[in-house]
Every structure is written in structure tokens, then in C-alpha cells.
Amino acid sequence: MDRGLIDRLIETVHQELIPKLQIESIAPHDPVKISYLPYPWQKVGVGNYAGVVYHPDYPNWVVKIYAPGRPGFEEEVEVYHRLGSHPAYSECLYAKDGLLILKRLYGVTLYDSIQRGLRIPKQVIQDIDEALEYARMRGLYPHDVHGRNVMMYEGRGLVVDISDFLHEDKCAKWDNLKRAYYWLYRPILAPLRLKIPYFLLDAVRKVYRFFSKLKKSAEGILSKISRKNNKKTYL
């Protein structure tokens, strides 16, 4: 790693990017919006908390900027500290005031792969499984791992977003995605090389989110009923 090059990138970020960048979070469960990005910076992608951009003169790194009022910056820094170096994850080279400079990961998200009709090898799923187990061994809790947050590159799997890996509550998104991969994608979609349009993928995502919330609410109600019944039993 060229420390001098990183230092120049840090200076460029603070002098040319941050003073002009316009980024906002309109709704907590929807991606943030980058309304203005100064030239020659280019957008890599956006998530619910932050946007990711890069400068053509520094193609091996990206800058992740949290939208004002969105949480998670300190937690993400801690996650990268615990992860250290692993081939399926990025690495944090600099973190300050809601922005991180990260090693760039190249690839296509599984979400985009399905839209484009690209073949997703089983090795990709296995790599991500191994990476998530590695995170657990480092005292982390893989959370919010879904099709937009994992990628494939040259037949190998990568985990892009680790910002929620300190959340201890159970998250079934990756297990559900794997189930869909083995039960639906491999036997049906992959052989046909079907391209699923984004509007249909987004509809599936919204339906999944609705039923997930419904399931969580039902589980909460059943848990309360169970606790009340246990209290009555002991009385």
C-alpha cells in the first residue's frame, strides 16, 4: 500500500469532495440520495445509511460517506477493526467524521446478477458462507446480508456491507437468500438464463420486507403471551 498516495487521497477528499458533496437520507429504509457529486468523482452505489464514491485518479479505493443524521459510522469502524484482513471483505484505511476510505472491491451484486441473467456459481455462495463464519469467529454478528450487499467477482463471493455486524438480534436474510438460490435459482432461473427486471425484484423485496415485519410482530405477540402464561403458572 502506497501511504503517500493514501495521504493525497485523504487531502483530496477533504478539500474537493466533502465541501461540495450533497447527500441526504429521505426515508430510513430507502437508499440515500446523492443530489450533487463534484467532478470528477463518480458514484459507486448507495445504501440506506451512506453513499460510496471514487476518484478516477485513485481507482483502488472508495470513499463511503454517511448521510447527515444516519447512524452507524462508529460501529462500522469497529467492525472493520475486528475483521482485519480477509479476501472476502474490504479494509478500512481511514475513518473520520462520518467518512471512511476503503479498499475497493470489484464485482457485481447478486441482485444485479439476477437482473442481468448472469450465472451465479455455487462457489460464490460458499465463499460468502465462509466469510460470515469468519466474522462470527471475530466476535461479530452477520446482519442485513442480502442480494445488494454481496457480490461476485471472477467466480468468487464477496461481502460488501458490514455496517450492521454489531447487531446481535437474529437476521435471516442470508439464510432466506440461500434457500431461494438452491430451491429457485439453480433449478429454474439459472438454466433458463432469465433476466428478472428491477421492478419485479423491487416488488419481491418489498413483499419480503412486509412479511418479515409481520412475522416479527407475530413472534413478539406470542412471546408476550408466553411470558404472561408462565407468570400465571408460577403464581
From TrEMBL:
SUPFAM superfamilies: Protein kinase-like (PK-like)
Highest taxon, organism lineage: Bacteria
InterPro entries assigned to the protein according to its UniProt record, in alphabetical order: Kinase-like_dom_sf, Meiotic_Drive_Suppr_Kinase
Protein name (database record): Serine/threonine protein kinase
